[in-house]
């Protein structure tokens, strides 16, 4: 098993490439589409670097895995799939998120809330085969109702891709104030992740390093239990919920939440062009945030 991580600097998002090197098979977790909110322009520059790397290794892309419907970047899954193939994987509970945001964006009846935009839907305990690697889904709601972590295991080691559920120890944990989020539920999800073996490497979806520290895509279960500022050993559920809800009340909405969510709940598809050939995103007024 090999994992290669690519930092999207604008959104501080990590895209990971998980590979069975001997069988030349790989999966890409949480790909990013570049988006400039000032101009409304998209670009594939960053995801093209991932594509070039996969091609350079002569690997076959089997899965494109989204840990959840991201609120801070647009998914690059469609461009990745059109270029390299692979099946698009999302947690089954994305249907809850689709229904919530269909109402928020007032999408018409053509928008599907059955998750049929995705190729493979996973639920707790489901597994995917990637050569000699077994990828097991863990449902870890709280940040959103649909968050999934993916545990990858082969004969040598076990790693876990945690999405936005946890960050580096000095950063803490995901916010829970998006529609459908819940701090108590997140605490229970995190406890399940921290029950993995101490030496399990956690691959993060984001890193927001404190001053003087460089971006890093990984941490370990042991490091989280020892030093995570929000949920290290000794912090109970009531303390976590009080902290998380108080902190969330002070946070601004993510810079790209409006374009990101409406694209990502549709599997990364941009809206269909209108009669003039231009695609348009919607902006709900006075709905999100305080």
How would you describe the overall organization of this protein?
The longest helix is centred in the N-terminal third of the chain and has 13 residues, at 45-57. The chain has one domain: Metallo-beta-lactamase, Chain A. The chain has seven helices and 15 strands. The protein has a six-stranded mixed β-sheet, covered by helices on one side. The chain has a six-stranded mixed β-sheet with strand order 10-11-12-13-14-15. Strands 5-4-7 form a three-stranded antiparallel β-sheet. It is globular. The chain is of the alpha/beta class and 290 residues long. Helix content is 24%, strand content 24%. Strand 1 (2-8) and strand 2 (13-20) form a beta hairpin.
Which secondary structure elements does this structure contain, and how are they paired or packed?
Elements: E1 2-8, E2 13-20, E3 25-29, E4 32-36, E5 41-43, H1 45-57, E6 60-65, E7 74-75, H2 77-84, E8 87-91, H3 94-104, E9 120-122, E10 127-130, E11 133-139, E12 148-153, E13 158-161, H4 183-194, E14 201-203, E15 218-220, H5 221-227, H6 237-248, H7 257-264
Parallel strand pairs: 3-6, 6-8, 8-9, 13-14
Antiparallel strand pairs: 1-2, 2-3, 4-5, 4-7, 10-11, 11-12, 12-13, 14-15
Helix pairs in contact: 4-6
Keywords: Hydrolase, Metal-binding
Domain Metallo-beta-lactamase: 12-206
Organism: Psychrobacter frigidicola
